[in-house]
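quick one before i forget lol
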Amino acid sequence: MKGAAPAIDVGALAVPSSTGRVARAWPRTLGWGAAALALAALVLSPIASLVLAAARGDGTLWPHLLAHVLPRALVDTGLLLAGVGVLVVVLGTGAAWLVSAYAFPGRRWLEAGLLLPMAVPTYIVAYAYLDLMHPIGPVQTVLREWLGYARPRDFVLPELRSLPGCILLLGFVLYPYVYLPTRALFLMQAANLIEAGRMLGRPPAAVFLRVALPLARPAIALGASLALMEALNDIGAAEFLGVRTLTVQVYATWVNRSDLPGAAQIALVMLVAVLGLVAIERWARRGRGFAGTAQRPRDLARRPLRGWRGWAALALGLVPVTLGFLIPASYLVHAAVARVARTGWPATILPEIGNTVLYASLATGLAAGIGFLVAAAPRLLPGRLGRGMVRLTGLGYALPGAILAIGLLGPLALADTILSEGLTRLFGAAPALIGLGTGGALVIAYLIRFLAVSVGTCEAGLGRIPRSLPDAGRMLGRGPAATLARVQWPLAWPAVLSGALLVFVDCVKELPATLLLRPLNVETLATHLYGEAARGTYEDGTVAALLIVLVGLVPVIVLMRLGTRREAAVAARP
């Protein structure tokens, strides 16, 4: 009929049935479920293996541990963590408030410079100060000349090899873990509450203690827990300075006494300490959620400090930077240049650089790829499964390197046995060791320990992508995998790259896991430095120490540039 409407194919407009959607979603759900199980096995297997190794120990060992090992180790570890915790909270929070609430000459340079101690591992700082503060070292020699003493025994400073010395060194190196999140919170929160306290006539100390400090408690608790985990993971500084912590006892029991079950039993005590730190951090942050307004918060108006007060503030802020970075870094540069000028480059330095870069690069590549997929899991698979994968990765970062190394022995030995039997059936012969005793064990340890770093940065990058972009890709017929590869990856790759950079630096600096899992007759920069310090030949390890510090400076410089850009943007805002 003329003018009749064209026929419409109702079937073409039909909405896919729920049964079809569920059927298509099953393969994806099964795939992510299998990936979640593999990730859980990777992270949880060291803990299960640690428990089994400890259970295989002779029951007669516990009386010896309880009588001679654990009492001193627990006391030293507890005092060390308590002292370092107080010091990093005081230094980090005080420095963050100083650069956030006051304006004085050199404040911008100080704000960036306070991050520099993050570039120096704790064992390198201990290594440098031991040589500097030696009775016949440069510091005490110069002091004796100034004071008129002729012999070293006539004037000796307090011994650095002590628990107070270890607390001071670790505190001045680890305070940026508190400084960084606390400063970010001071800069991001609304200034209304702090300025209201000022308008009510409260003195600066009261505003800080009653307003700013309670608001910053979540950031302080988070930073302090990270710093304490780093202090518990430390083995080089504690051993160099004569502090018998749990980590040092694990290494001594395994390597020096060849007692793996005993080391596993001590490691279980360390694991309880780690869980205690996590519980304390959660308790400190309880009920401390804050909501801001929908508008962008105003920046905190800094009070100007003029005259001698401004220069005093700058000098006060430079104290942790000087003690935590400038003095040890200057020593390393001077000693390394003198070492190279006198005897040339160490003969083993190039192979050690190659080993360090090889293992760190392999772990970094795996962490970057897996971290991106884990961070994308909650977006591709909404529900508990995706969120659970993200939380699992955080457990690996909480494990100290010594615990992780001992826990990996059992799973790697089992995997070697299975692979060796399979290859023997297929080809008639197979190597006895495939993962354990090779670089593969070290790469796996790096991956488990630092995967959370990559996941965290990838989550931050994906969180900046508007939801409308992936939704638009799906509306155009792209599946979740294609949307992830063609939409989210091109936008999130800077975050993936920054996470990979942090993982690489952490792998280069990691000492406990490297000491315990490196292949035989293989040295990295970190293990070479540890060996030279153990032998007392400090100058021979300065080149390796300086190279590690230079690598650690890279992410710090990136953070400093980001902070400078933010300052420029704030200054340009009308």
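fyi Residues 1-26, 291-295, 570-574 have pLDDT under 50 and may be disordered.
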